[in-house]
Fold Cellulose synthase.
Amino acid sequence: MSLIGSLVLVVHFLLLAILSLFGLHRLSMVFRWFKYRNFTPQSPKMFEKLPKITVQIPLYNERLVAKRIVDSIVLLEYPADRLQIQIVDDSNDDTSEVIAERVSHYKLQGINIEHVQRTNRHGFKAGALKEAMTTADGEFIAIFDADFIPTPDTLLKSIHFFTQTDIAMVQLRWEHLNRRSSLLTKTQAVMLDAHFGLEQHVRCASDMLFNFNGTAGIWRTSAIIDAGHWSADTLTEDLDLSYRAQLAGWKMQYLNHITCPGELPADMNAFKTQQYRWAKGGVQVMLKMLKTVWKAKIPLVKKLESTFHLSNNLAYLVMMLDTLFFLLPSLYLRAQYDYINVWWIDIALLLMSSGGHIAYLYFGQVVLGRSKIRALAKLPNLVLLGIQLAINNSKAGFEALMGKESEFVRTPKTGELQKAEHTYKSENQASQGFKNKPHYKPLPPKGAIFEFLVAAIYVVVLVWAVIYQYWFILPFVSLLALGFVMSAVNSFYSHYQLSRHA
C-alpha cells in the first residue's frame, strides 16, 4: 500500500477514535450521574434582609413576545423596594413601541421598571447587558430572555443560595412552553433535558467547571465585574463569562429542582440558526479559554472535563470530515489490499461514538422521571435530528477555527405558548400556531441545497457498499443520507409554510 493510502487509513481511524472519545465522555455522564444522583445543593441560609435584585430582559426585535414578557416579569414576588426591572431593548422595529407602552403602564402603578435603549447594537447581547449595568443598582442581576416566563416565586426560591459569599451565579433548569407543539419541539426538548437534567447536574455535583446558559439565571454583580465583565468577542458570552468567573475563584450553582419555562424554536431554520450560534460560540470560547484552563492551578480531571466541554461542538466537524473525505477511500483501499476483515474496528468505534450519545439522551429523560418507554421511542428522531445538524454545526465550528467573525443572529420567536408539563397558558395564543402570526418572519433555508448534495454523496457510498457487499456500513450510511435529505426537505417546507402566513 502506498504512503498516501496508509495515511488515508490512519486519518480515517484517527477521526473515528476522536468521535468515540466524545461518545465515551457522554457515556461517562450517565455513569457519573449514578454517583451523584442524590446530590442536592446545600440548603442555604436565609438572608435576614433580602438583597436588591436587578432583573434584566435583553431583547431585539421581539414584538411577538415583548408584551408577554413585560406582563409576566412584573408579577415577580419580591419586595418592591428591593427590585429593579430593566427591559434592555436593542430593537429597531416596532417592538420598542410595544415595550414603551407596557413600561409606561406599569410605571404608573408604581413599579420600578425601566426601558433601557441604545442607539447601536455594539457588542450585541453582551454589549447591551454591559451597558445596562451602568444604571443597574442591584447587588444581583437576574437575566431572562424575552421568550422565557419565570414563575412569580422564582427569585424568592433561588436568591438565598447567594448567602454563600463565593457563589457567582445560580442557573435554573429550563422547561419548555411549547414542548408538545410539534415533533421538532418534542425532540429539541429531549436534547435540552439531557443537557440540564444530566450534564449540568453532574458537572455541578462533581465540582467541575460548567456554564451559565444565557438566561434563567442570577449573577452576583461583583462577580461579573471581577471576572472582566461581559465580553462580545465570542457568540456565547454566557459560556465565556462563566469560565472566566470560575477560573478567577468564584463558584457557581445549578438548581435542578427550580425550573423556568422558555420557548423552543418552532421551525427547522430557526433551530439551525440557534444551534449555529451556540456551536460557533462554543468553539470560539474554546480557542479563547482552553489555554488558560490548562495553565490554571486546578486538578487535572477538571482540565480534561473542561476540554471535552469546550470542544464538544467540533464532533460534528470531525464526523463530516471522516464520512465525506475518508470513509469511501478507506473502504476502497481495504478492498484493494484485502484488509476487509478489519471492519470490526469501524463497528467498535462507531458504536462507542454513537452509543454514548444515545445513552446520554435516553438517560436525560430517565433522570427527570419521564417515561422510559417514551424515551426509547424518541431515540430514532433524536439520532436523525443530530445528523440534520451536522453540516450546519460543522460550518459553525470551521468558521470559528478559521477566525471568521459573524453577527449575533437572534433566534426568531413566535410567541406560541402551549400547555407543556407545567400549566402555563396564554390568554389569547394557545394552540394558534402560525396562522395568527402575520409578523413572524421565517429565516431562509440556508444550506439546504448543499445538504441535498451531501445526501447524494452518501447515496453513492451506499450503492458502492451494496455492490461490494460491505453490509456492516449500510446502517450508518443510510442514516446519514436520510438525515440530510430530511434536513433539506424540512428547511424548504418550513420556509414555504411560514412564508405563506408572513
